[in-house]
Amino acid sequence: MKRIKFNSPVVLWFAIISAIVLAASYATGGLIRDRFFVCYKTSFMDPLFYLRLFTHVLGHQNLTHYTGNMMMFLLIGPILEEKYGSKRLIEIILIVAVVTGLIHILLSPNTGLLGASGIVFAFILLVSVTGTRNENEIPLTMLIVAVIYIGQELYNGVISSDNISQLTHIVGGAIGAVYGMSVRPRRRSSY
């Protein structure tokens, strides 16, 4: 008989915590989300400013926003967690959270940022580099994904006004590509 395995702890806990944050947001009319899970410009003396640099990736506007991010997150994340390990996956999540939060505050100080889409796009570019065996090679698949993805985000950023931060997607994707090119997946032990 097959059993259910908690196969990817970082990815699964991230999705579970994000779902709890979404439920708490609905229960409080968005108060919890807006106070703790949206990154926006505020005083550097406010301790919550620093917390929100990390936690904004756990907040989502609504169920559609959450499911859109989590579908890709849960699809790609376990592959990366298996290849790179839990610690490195946490590392990239934290890097993307802080960098996208800071860039957003610098370039869009009058709007808030929330959601895991920067991480999702980092994962997309990271997974496209993951199969590379030689450090001196750049996979053609990664270049094609990057061109299509960045082209789409630039097009969406110019054409639409949908309150989606295409810049966050581009920055997250760039971080994923750079991380993937500079950090090798962990080696599996052979028995």
Task: Provide keyphrases for this structure.
mainly alpha; 191 residues; Rhomboid-like fold
Overview of the structural elements:
The structure is a single chain. This protein has eight helices and no strands. Helices cover 67% and strands 0% of the residues. The two termini are 26 Å apart. It has a single domain (9-182), classed as Rhomboid-like fold (Up-down Bundle). α4 crosses α5 (86-107) and α4 packs parallel to α6 (117-129). The longest helix is centred in the middle third of the chain and has 22 residues, at 63-84. The chain has 191 residues and is mainly alpha-helical. The protein has helices spanning 9-27, 31-36, 47-55, 63-84, 86-107, 117-129, 140-159, 166-182.
SSE string, helices as H and strands as E: HHHHHHHH
Q: What's the CATH topology label?
A: Rhomboid-like fold
Mean pLDDT: 87
What is the overall silhouette? globular
Instruction: State the helical fraction.
Output: 55-70%
Radius of gyration: 17 Å
The proportion of residues in beta strands is: under 5%
Q: What structural class should be given to the helix and strand makeup?
A: mainly alpha
- What top-tier CATH class fits best? Mainly Alpha
The tally of beta strands, per DSSP, is 0
CATH superfamily: Rhomboid-like
Largest sheet at a glance? none
Tally of distinct domains: 1
CATH architecture: Up-down Bundle
Spans where pLDDT lies below 50 across 5 or more residues: none
The end-to-end span amounts to 26 Å
